[in-house]
Specification:
- By secondary structure, this protein is an alpha/beta fold.
- α10 (about 225-240) links the parallel β5 (about 215-220) and β6.
- It has 20 helices and eight strands.
- The model is unreliable at about 400-423 (pLDDT under 50).
- Helix content is about 55%, strand content about 10%.
- It is flat.
- The protein has three domains: about 5-85, Up-down Bundle (Four Helix Bundle (Hemerythrin (Met), subunit A)), CATH 1.20.120; about 100-295, 3-Layer(aba) Sandwich (Rossmann fold); about 310-420, no CATH class.
- The longest helix is centred in the first third of the chain and has 17 residues, at about 25-40.
């Protein structure tokens, strides 16, 4: 998400760190570059002005002048400023003192409300062992209610049965009675959206909020829409007084300005971010970790958490012993590839490792394609079980295949010829 901004800022700070003592002119020049980088990342102009002013005031103070490494100190000041801009500390979802916890999902059509509703339901079930009910209040978009019903089935949670002809308020009333009567811990209400903000939309969502009295009113916004997402957040917050924001498509290649602007503009915390299409690709938003990633400092805490969630400790120890004994097979290598994919791929993992920003840039410039791991897994699948267990056998059958492939050259996109695909 923040790749371009991160690269620009790191270029600025590399220049600062190469200097010894910093004069005020050095800081001024650096802040001009930071300002341009933020504007290019689609951060709102008022936010950029406030941020640069605050950073400059801190950076020309005695703390930096007396520092042994003034360039590093400026980086720390910018890091702390980004952390504050993003909200300071992570903010959890509300806890219900008297279940069910009611969560209202609001936002424009296409922002990812329904998909996020399914992801959130799965998160409550898997992480907190909660009994979850989801309900679609969208009676206008074709098949919207059926879409949520399908998503609920995929993540294994209950979906309020569809009753034709009911409006949003009637569905809300039925969802609340069902949740209380059947002992649900959480009920998530997926409201209707529009392609743009209008009074009818706002009135309906406000009426649903008055009836349901949710503990959480979450605005779902698409991070890829930049400043439009910020304007949408302002409009919804003024009418609904949202309690938090969910940014979807944070794994995309947008400039990231929405995430940096939204907290500052609305004063409401970003609580969750969507990081992919899979049902478990919904994560808590940690301002400090995001600030560290932007500045190329990595995110070791998130890396460890992903490893704990996706890597079987016993299996990892077993593979380590195999490597030590020299008995590491291609089946084992394929398991490693699968683990890397679960943890976000090579690019995602490198983004969380401190000090590898330049290496990552070199990989991008060299056009290193992560799909090579998928191709390697496909090649392994094309082998017989004996070949996968005993690499020495590849000298016979597989090497002949590779030789044949070498004569023709790898096809466009690196795809394996049909005759070399799995038997």
């Amino acid at each position: 998400m923040f790749e371009n901004l991160s690269n620009r800022l790191n270029e600025v700070f590399d220049r600062l760190k190469r200097r010894g003592a910093l004069a005020e002119g050095d800081v001024d020049a650096a802040m001009r570059d930071v300002r341009v980088a933020l504007l290019e990342a689609d951060v709102a102009l008022p936010v950029v002005k406030d941020f640069v002013k605050t950073i400059k005031e801190r950076a020309v103070g005695q703390e930096v002048i007396k520092s042994v490494t003034p360039g590093q100190m400026v980086v720390k000041i910018v890091h702390d400023g980004l952390k504050e801009l993003l909200g300071g500390e992570a903010v959890d979802l509300a806890k219900a003192t008297n279940p069910p916890l009611v969560i209202l999902m609001a936002g424009l059509q296409g922002s990812g409300k329904t998909t996020t509703t399914g992801k959130l339901a799965k998160r409550f079930q898997d992480k907190e062992r909660k009994k979850v009910l989801v309900a679609s209040l969208d009676t206008r978009r074709p098949a919207a209610q059926q879409q949520l019903e399908v998503l609920a089935g995929q993540v294994g949670c209950a979906s309020l049965p569809i009753v034709e002809g009911q409006d949003a308020l009637a569905i809300t009333d039925r969802a609340m009675k069902t949740a209380r009567g059947e002992g649900y811990d959480v009920v998530i209400l997926d409201t209707a959206g529009r392609l743009s903000i209008d009074e009818e939309l706002m009135a309906e969502v406000a009426a649903v909020k008055d009836k349901a009295q949710p503990q959480e009113s979450l605005l779902v916004a698409d991070a890829m829409t930049g400043q439009d997402a910020v304007k949408t957040a302002e409009a919804f917050d003024q009418r609904l007084d949202v309690t938090g924001i969910v940014l979807t498509r944070m794994d995309g290649d947008a400039r990231g300005g929405a995430a940096l602007s939204m907290r500052h503009v609305t004063g409401k915390p970003i609580k969750l971010v969507g990081t992919g299409e899979k049902s478990d690709a919904l994560e808590p938003f940690h301002p400090e970790r995001v600030a560290s990633r932007i500045l190329g400092m990595g995110d070791v805490v998130s890396l460890v958490e992903k490893a704990q969630e996706n890597v079987d400790e016993e299996e990892a120890e077993k593979l380590a012993r195999k490597m030590q004994k020299g008995s590491f097979s291609l089946d084992d290598y394929k398991k490693q590839i699968q683990q890397i994919k679960k943890m976000g791929g090579m690019k995602g993992l490198m983004g969380m490792m401190p000090g590898v920003k330049k290496i990552q840039k070199q990989m991008n410039e060299a056009n290193m394609d992560e799909r090579i791991l998928v191709r390697q897994a496909a090649i392994i699948d094309s082998m017989t079980p004996k070949e996968r267990r005993n690499i020495k056998l590849l000298g016979a059958s597989m090497m002949k295949r590779m030789k044949k492939m070498g004569k023709r050259g790898m096809p466009p996109g690196g795809q394996i010829p049909p005759e070399l695909m799995p038997r």
